[in-house]
């Protein structure tokens, strides 16, 4: 087991899962601010996915892929969770939950594969910072949307 390859696969899978989640929410919301934030996050995740793929290719590897069942469960979970509440605060909350799960999983992976090369560690750190920033930005959206509904 090569810790560099393992960590890069974790980074790739985390970013791909983030993309699946964002696209599921994008299909549901009409809120311009939320859509703009989703587009911004989507671009950042796509950059991480590409960089992980390039680093894996440099090791003669390809991403392991995200389990089809995991993608389906993520998409279905978001759809089910928004059946009765499509409000921006609720969807921003879902983004916060998803990014928090990503932070937890990535923090665990970084510890599990601490022997990975610096390039993999750096990309993992970049994704971790992205997810932490996404939480802050989603919190701001949630607070802004809640302030509009109470005004």
TrEMBL record:
Q: Is Coiled coil a UniProt keyword of this protein?
A: yes
Residues folding into a coiled coil are 113-148
**Record key words, sorted:** Coiled coil
Name the chain's protein.
Answer: DUF892 family protein
Organism equals: Candidatus Alectryocaccomicrobium excrementavium
């Amino acid at each position: 087991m090569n810790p560099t390859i393992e960590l890069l696969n974790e980074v790739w899978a985390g970013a791909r899962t983030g993309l699946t989640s964002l696209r599921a929410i994008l299909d549901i919301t009409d809120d311009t601010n939320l859509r703009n934030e989703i587009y911004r996050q989507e671009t950042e995740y796509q950059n991480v996915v590409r960089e992980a793929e390039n680093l894996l290719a440099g090791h003669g590897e390809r991403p392991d892929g995200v389990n089809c069942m995991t993608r389906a469960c993520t998409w279905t979970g978001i759809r089910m969770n928004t059946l009765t509440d499509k409000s921006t605060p609720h969807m921003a909350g879902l983004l916060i939950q998803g990014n928090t799960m990503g932070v937890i999983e990535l923090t665990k992976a970084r510890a599990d594969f601490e022997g990975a090369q610096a390039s993999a560690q750096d990309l993992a750190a970049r994704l971790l910072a992205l997810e932490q920033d996404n939480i802050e930005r989603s919190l701001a959206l949630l607070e802004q949307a809640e302030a509009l509904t109470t005004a």
